[in-house]
Amino acid sequence: MITINASIITIGDELLIGQTIDTNSAFIAQQLNKIGIWVKRRIAVGDVYEDIWQALDEESKLADIIIITGGLGPTADDITKPLLSNYFGGKLVVNENVLNHVKYLFEKVYHRVGGALLERNLKQAEVPDVCTVLHNARGTAPGMWFEKDNKVFISLPGVPHEMKGLMLDEVIPRLQQKFSLPAIIHKTAFTFGMGESMIAEKIKDFESSLPSYIKLAYLPGYGLVKLRLTMISDDKQKAEQEIMPLFNQLQELVKDVLVAAEDEGLETTIGKILLAKGKTVSTAESCTGGYIAHLITTIPGSSAYFKGSVVSYANEVKENVLGVNHETLTGSGAVSKETVKEMLKGVLKKMNTDYALATSGIMGPDGGSEEKPVGTVWIAAGNNQKIEFLKLNLRFDRKRNIEQTALSALNFLRKFMLAND
């Protein structure tokens, strides 16, 4: 079986200094993996001519496909296009189709006053005469496809929205047409509440019994571990038949902490449960500041089951909006079982939902005490008949404490919903 390998090169000083987070590589790798192309390496280089040239040389020795993003804009530091022209022995020429598209965007879409175009914008229509132009329907910088020594080089803009359009509309179909690709089968079990080392110990006999061509990967996150089985085969149907019994066995071994047999987030799992039950949920958030509501509403169609949130960061909001008793706040404190209980009851009534979540805690770095140190969190999940509580004692920084609380709350809600109609 022949494996087609790819390398991804991202270009930009902003990536190297951490000013911009590279999300392009992740998206490109995901799309390549779906069609059976294995990403061998991902590297980032700055806006330095010699470094980009060297990266092209090195990656072309290791991979069949080299995908580049960045450096295609209209400013002086965008050097990728002239470099590629030199690298492949061509010269820059105006492509009439790209020129007409650039003019259309500025005159009809961007509504540039008077339809005037800067010379640097018109330069976007210049491409190396040795490339195949890939139409960028979402922007002015075209994609470019080169072939050299039986290797494919693809240059894409660094703007994520434009890059994604080109990958889906142009690059993936062309790669599928050019290469005979194997199937890469992934099966992912999503667990929550048990550490990576404990899970590894739990399934060590299973892992050691796997055939050499089926790989098990541990993908840890905040409180969660995803277990991924991977198999590469020329026969997708046969591979599915072989891997599924093993995946079922894996799920059985971790069933006490299994969330889903899919590579998905807790917010997706929650939505599926609510849709299946025909139920709704709301949140009352103090320490998480609306982050739980944000996670839930990142899922398309979440309006079918999520009604809203009360971000009751201040005590007066807890009292005046959610109806938390003043005596509860002064007696038990804002971070207490009693307070989240009353917050939950208040949001259930105000939002008229079937289920609700409430959170209150001390995220840090300040605000803790000997009795309630930083990282103390109370969570309530419930309905009009029953409320359950979870106390966390976190030890991370503020950002991670918030994220960990949100995920723990969603998992707590998941378990409550499955146990209580």
Attribute tags:
Maf protein, 421 residues, 41% helix, globular, Alpha-Beta Plaits, Molybdenum Cofactor Biosythetic Enzyme, Chain A, alpha/beta
Question: How many helical elements?
Answer: 16
Q: N-to-C terminal Cα separation, in Å?
A: 50 Å
CATH topology of the largest domain: Molybdenum Cofactor Biosythetic Enzyme, Chain A
CATH architecture heading of the largest domain: 3-Layer(aba) Sandwich
Low-confidence stretches: none
> How many strands appear in the DSSP assignment?
17
Q: Shape from CA axes?
A: globular
Strands of the biggest beta sheet: in what spatial order? 2-1-3-8-7-6
Q: Give the biggest sheet.
A: 6 strands, mixed
What is the helix content?
40-55%
CATH class of the largest domain: Alpha Beta
Structural class: alpha/beta
Task: Present the secondary structure layout.
Elements: E1 4-11, H1 13-16, H2 24-34, E2 37-45, H3 49-62, E3 65-69, H4 80-87, E4 92-94, H5 96-109, H6 119-122, E5 126-128, E6 132-134, E7 143-148, E8 151-156, H7 160-178, E9 183-192, H8 196-202, H9 204-209, E10 214-220, E11 224-233, H10 236-253, E12 258-260, H11 266-277, E13 281-285, H12 291-297, E14 306-311, H13 315-320, H14 326-331, H15 337-351, E15 355-361, E16 376-382, E17 387-393, H16 398-419
Parallel strand pairs: 1-2, 1-3, 3-8, 13-14, 13-15
Antiparallel strand pairs: 4-5, 6-7, 7-8, 9-11, 9-12, 10-11, 15-16, 16-17
Helix pairs in contact: 2-7, 11-16
Description:
The strands form 4 sheets. A 6-stranded mixed sheet has the order 2-1-3-8-7-6, sandwiched between helices. Strands 14-13-15-16-17 form a 5-stranded mixed sheet, sandwiched between helices. It has 16 helices and 17 strands. The chain is of the alpha/beta class. The chain has 3 domains: 4-178, 3-Layer(aba) Sandwich (Molybdenum Cofactor Biosythetic Enzyme, Chain A), CATH 3.40.980; 184-260, Alpha-Beta Plaits; 266-419, Maf protein (Alpha-Beta Complex), CATH 3.90.950.20. The chain is globular and about 80 Å long. It has helices at 13-16, 24-34, 49-62, 80-87, 96-109, 119-122, 160-178, 196-202, 204-209, 236-253, 266-277, 291-297, 315-320, 326-331, 337-351, 398-419; strands spanning 4-11, 37-45, 65-69, 92-94, 126-128, 132-134, 143-148, 151-156, 183-192, 214-220, 224-233, 258-260, 281-285, 306-311, 355-361, 376-382, 387-393.
